[in-house]
Design goal:
With about 230 residues, this protein is an all-alpha fold. It has 13 helices and no strands. The N and C termini lie far apart (about 50 Å).
């Protein structure tokens, strides 16, 4: 019952992202209180970054659609280096906790779940062909939402170590880019540009993610070509 309540809660939070603009809310909050936030960070840097990492951790555990928003704020408040470290730690530990909870709750029914779901069954097939390559692929190239990539491997009964390593390394490229954008968030706040525009107008970033994804999935493609 606890597990189903947890799943219901996560589902409600994810659904709320459709009706509520979390990114716009976060940017407005930072824009209206950026002086106070900067002052708090300067006066209590260690406490601030620990608190920020904890917030990122819980937002990941409960699949709150705040990843991009918090990453931007992390780059703005703590600059590139410390912001990057805080986000990677918070996101990785949060994803790991979510993985353990979901896998423990769905262990007995995981086989039925992925057979009934076409998306999960395709992911299962890809993982069976090339575990590491496929996991890195879905991390590097954001085809699926972050919360789905965190939960799906747990539903499929994936082992902990591959999940942890691919999560830790796989979120680094995208996180670094958003952190860099966040370090110059004043430019976004002072114009009418939206974060999605900044993201998709940066062709170098998109091409880099595409190249990493192709590199990760190459062994699977090579095996298919070799068979033919």
């Amino acid at each position: 019952m606890r597990f189903y309540f947890f799943v219901l809660l996560i589902g409600a939070i994810i659904l709320s992202g459709v009706f509520f603009d979390y990114l716009g809310f976060t940017l407005d909050l930072v824009g209206n209180h950026h002086k106070e936030l900067s002052m708090i960070v300067e006066e209590s840097f260690l406490i601030s970054i620990i608190f920020f990492t904890a917030v990122y951790f819980f937002s990941t555990v409960f699949s709150l659609p705040l990843g991009a928003s918090l990453t931007l704020v992390g780059g703005y408040l703590f600059n590139i280096f410390y912001g990057f470290i805080a986000v990677i730690i918070g996101a990785t530990l949060g994803a790991l906790t979510l993985f353990i909870v979901v896998r423990a709750g769905s262990l007995k029914t995981s086989h039925k779940i992925y057979i009934k779901s076409e998306i999960l069954s395709r992911i299962k097939a890809g993982i069976e062909k090339d575990l590491w390559g496929y996991l890195f692929f879905i991390r590097f190239f954001p085809i699926f939402p972050f919360w789905f990539v965190n939960i799906a491997p747990a539903l499929l009964g994936l082992r902990l170590l591959p999940y942890l390593i691919t999560t830790f390394l796989g979120i680094m490229p995208g996180t670094l880019f958003i952190i860099i954008v966040g370090s110059g968030i004043d430019d976004i706040l002072s114009t009418d540009l939206k974060f999605s525009q900044v993201l998709f107008e940066n062709k170098v970033f998109l091409l880099s993610l595409f190249a990493l994804s192709c590199l990760a999935i190459f062994p699977v493609i090579y095996k298919k070509l070799k068979r033919k």
